[in-house]
Amino acid sequence: MIETALFTNIEEAYLSDDYQKVVAVWEQHKQNYSFAFENLQDRKLLQALVVSYSELNRIKESVYYINRYIRFLRAQKGNLNEYSDDIDFYFSAKSSIYSKERKWFYEYRTLREYVGLGYHRLWFRRFLQ
Question: What CA–CA distance (Å, rounded) separates 45 from 22?
Fold first, then answer.
């Protein structure tokens, strides 16, 4: 019940572009919450956090949550097709964050190695379908 209320509050704030509220609600409840990345609701929550922290220029926190999800993807040995949209999102989010910081971005190689998708698939996935 608490998790549903937390998700609803964050979703409403995120959809209204109130990134301050997303972060405030999360900061208040994060110690009582653990992610189950297989759950679509938790993946949406994680995306809201990544975008909110990034928009508030709290880059360190945003990259932290991106890396948590990437660690989850590394552990997946089976079919990653269900996570392909998430992989695209996190790759583009991390490259966007690094471009804001004016740092060169080498993560595409790391994602390809750990996730098992080709570099061409990450960039040209929509053209290959």
Answer: 10
pTM to 2 decimal places: 0.68
Q: Is there a contact between 46 and 69 (Cβ–Cβ < 8 Å)?
A: yes
3-state secondary structure of 34: coil
DSSP three-state, residue 118: coil
Q: Are 105 and 99 in contact (CB under 8 A)?
A: yes
pLDDT in tens, 88-122: 777 777 777 766 666 555 544 555 454 554 444 44
Burial code (b: 16+ CB inside 10 Å, e: under 16) for 34-63 equals eeebeeeebbebbbbbbbbbbeeeeeebbb
Which residues, other chains included, contact 53 with Cβ-Cβ below 8 Å and sequence gap of 6+? 23, 59, 61, 62, 65
Least confident span in 19-23, 27-31, 35-39, 106-110:
106-110
